[in-house]
Amino acid sequence: xxxxxxxxxxxxxxxxxxxxxxxxxxxxxxxxxxxxxxxxxxxxxxxxxxxxxxxxxxxxxxxxxxxxxxxxxxxxxxxxxxxxxxxxxxxxxxxxxxxxxxxxxxxxxxxxxxxxxxxxxxxxxxxxxxxxxxxxxxxxxxxxxxxxxxxxxxxxxxxxxxxxxxxxxxxxxxxxxxxxxxxxxxxxxxxxxxxxxxxxxxxxxxxxxxxxxxxxxxxxxxxxxxxxxxxxxxxxxxxxxxxxxxxxxxxxxxxxxxxxxxxxxxxxxxxxxxxxxxxxxxxxxxxxxxxxxxxxxxxxxxxxxxxxxxxxxxxxxxxxxxxxxxxxxx
Length: 330
Ligand code: NAD
Prior knowledge:
Helix 1 (10-23) crosses helix 11 and helix 4 crosses helix 6. The protein has helices spanning 10-23, 59-66, 84-89, 102-117, 120-128, 155-166, 192-198, 218-223, 241-250, 280-287, 302-322, and strands spanning 2-5, 26-29, 47-50, 71-74, 93-95, 147-151, 170-174, 187-188, 201-204, 228-232, 253-258, 291-293. The longest helix is centred in the last third of the chain and has 21 residues, at 302-322. It contains eleven helices and twelve strands. The chain is 35% helix and 15% strand. It has 330 residues and is of the alpha/beta class. It has a seven-stranded parallel beta sheet, with helices on both faces. A five-stranded parallel beta sheet has the order 2-1-3-4-5. Bound molecules: nicotinamide-adenine-dinucleotide. Nicotinamide-adenine-dinucleotide (NAD) binds at residues 77, 102, 105, 151-157, 174-177, 205-207, 209, 211-212, 233-235, 259-260, 296, 298-299. It comes from Vagococcus proximus.
């Protein structure tokens, strides 16, 4: 069996080589992404593992099938970059890696929560100016004195809640489907509105759907306590960024930590050193002292990357050898 791993980052190679050695598989690794220009690399391979933000031209699904390929395995949880209908029509099985390390994202959400509450941006900006005073506006609250609202109590939300409970916070939450085990460490409310009215810090942990697009808008921000904090490590489109900036300006929000932004695609994972950021809203987010913006990096731990690589390659192996995979999404 000969497999091809495309779009491989340097940090993935070591885990891919380990997987190939342990499973005695002939694995070719390239940092090229799959495109019409690189399709020839697929020739002679039995399966492919991809990791790319760009989609594929529609005709490529059939071209892959014509080369004898049965599947597309993405080394990510998200698979919205692929046209599932076109893949199915061409007889290709698309797989993802649904769970690779919820702790990675939960730990980052907690890190972001602490950083925004303790105003680390402001402190670091003063350090850069060599101003070592304790300004009055740097005084912060303690997490144990706060009520934390968790929106979405799935894998990541539950771990985030447990860690913050460990700091002594009271945890309230909303989810479309309540989790009985979570009731040991949090109290469910009947709506998002009920949570935001009571919480001092809100952390979002649900997927983006057509129902929650801009759920965090002017109306929802207006219900929040003055001086509350928002952490979003989920998806940018859940938050109306213009409304978020208004909430920060009015003092409704004291700070926000965002690992994701609704129009992040042109910027995230790219080097803009010395280049102009044309999106004025994004530029404001990365420059404000009351916003900690990070580039969709919450997942990025050694454990998560190893699990993504192994999960993606295992799915290729499963489809090539059994014509199916438990991680099939089409
Ligand atoms: P999960 O599926 O385990 O949990 C999601 C929870 O959200 C579920 O309990 C679901 O019932 C709930 N939910 C869905 N729609 C809702 C709504 N409208 N209102 C309230 N609750 C709702 O997912 P997870 O593994 O915990 O991941 C959560 C999110 O984290 C993902 O969807 C993704 O957007 C994000 N994520 C971010 C990164 C990153 O690097 N920043 C990495 C992985 C995942």
